[in-house]
Amino acid sequence: MSGGFRWKQRLPRRWSDDDPVVERNTPGGPPLTEEEAEDLLLGICFKTGPPRTVGAELEWLVHELRDPRLPVPPRRLAAAIDTVRALPLVAALTFEPGGQLELSSPPAASLMECLDSLAADLRAVRGHSPRSGSASAATAWTRGLAPRARVLHEPRYDAMELALGRTGPSGRAMMCESASVQVCLDAGVDDDGPLGYRRRWQLAHLLGAVLVAAFANSPVHGGRRTGWRSTRQALWTDLDPSRALAPSPDGEPRAGWAAHVMDTPVMCVRTEQGPWAVPEGLSFREWLRTGAPRRADADDLRYHLTTLFPPVRPRGHLELRMIDAQPGPDGWMVPLAVTTALFDDPRAAEAAHQAVLPLAPLAGGGPAPRNALWRTAARDGLTDPLLHRTALTVFEAALEALPRTGATPAVVGAVAAFHERYVVPGGCPADELLEVAS
């Protein structure tokens, strides 16, 4: 494999001084106690304060220019990666196990700053793609006839494929064949109002299903219809018994998340030499209590956090991970604009909160994304009447709020066009892909 490939490193993103760092392979600090681990989790996962910043992580499937169904051969992809890495980008550029390109923005002081910065970086990256005979695909899931092979062969991804493979093929498929738009927003203030972190946590897990439904864009896999409008989201539900789950929706978010982290099995234990250990069924709590296969430290806990993939991941800020990659070169702007408006504009946040409350009974008290609400969203999109009514309300609230956030007329127009094209008739981008596949 060419030296151009290296495993995905999280470069400093300035969201929080406590963001996980994954470069080191071995522990370097004093052993961590169970009580210290819980205190650390309670302190770092929800950084409270007025919402001021927004960010995004954009993933793109890379394919052959001559045939979008074909991946770029590894040697040529490695050369293209080396070229793109040399570009002076604002965002952190990384690559996923299947060769997907990812841009992770730094925290921006406004929605427009985030949109403009990422758009400029994408123009630079795309300007170099045709020279390598490759292009980025405007879809959330590969549509080729054969599964894509993993091109990043590093200890993290070797361990991940082994751990996730114990429950079936969904883990490997998610690693190599999917792409998303992830929205990063501040956790919120420490009160019970529309910008409070408790309200925003609840909103994320109910509105998240609406975002799945409205932006579903992965109905075909292996050249065939899957029966889901978001196959990507459907496979998240099948990924692992606990790793891709949200905590129980009951209770206080900080305490619930801390307990969830402690009780989720460890994906791997890093070692200096050789493949990393991949224990089976060893929770982080049990690791701390037993001290085997070695003592865990605070860096191991931070690393463990990077191996949990719930639809909403608290990392000081909130990382919303449920949105499929969108069609068109600028389709990613719409979910970023809509989500930011519904969370950070107080009037829109209150309207969204009231709109999504009727969805709670459909969730049935179970954690996302395995409850009935999220499954319905991934399978049916906005053809479900309740999700359709809710989407109409929240998109209207977002359209009203976007000018207050400083969004330009062009951004408001893009959201309005998506609203008219998909939301009003009760559709989503997946429906158009299904028409092509017919």
What does this structure look like?
The protein is α+β, with helices and mostly antiparallel strands and 438 residues long. The chain contains 17 helices and nine strands. The chain has helices spanning 34-44, 74-85, 111-128, 155-165, 170-177, 197-214, 231-236, 253-263, 284-290, 298-305, 333-344, 346-356, 360-363, 372-380, 385-401, 409-423, 429-437, and strands spanning 54-64, 92-95, 101-104, 134-137, 180-185, 220-221, 224-225, 312-315, 317-324. The strands form two sheets. Strands 1, 2, 3, 4, 5, 8 and 9 form a seven-stranded antiparallel β-sheet that branches. Strands 6-7 form a two-stranded antiparallel ribbon. Helix 1 crosses helix 8 (253-263) and helix 11 crosses helix 16. The chain is globular, with a radius of gyration of 21 Å. Residues 1-25 have low confidence and may be disordered.
Structure characteristics:
438 residues; alpha+beta; seven-stranded antiparallel beta sheet; disordered N terminus
* DSSP helical segment count: 17
Instruction: Summarize the amount of helix as a percent range.
Output: 40-55%
Q: What's the Cα radius of gyration?
A: 21 Å
Mean pLDDT: 89
Low-confidence segments, ≥5 residues, pLDDT <50? 1-25
Tally of DSSP β-strands:
9
Provide the succession of SSEs. Answer: HEHEEHEHHEHEEHHHHEEHHHHHHH
First CA to last CA: what distance?
A: 38 Å
Task: Supply the helix-strand structural class.
Answer: alpha+beta
Please summarize the sheet with the most strands.
7 strands, antiparallel
Characterize the overall form.
globular
Into which percentage range does the β-strand content fall? 5-15%
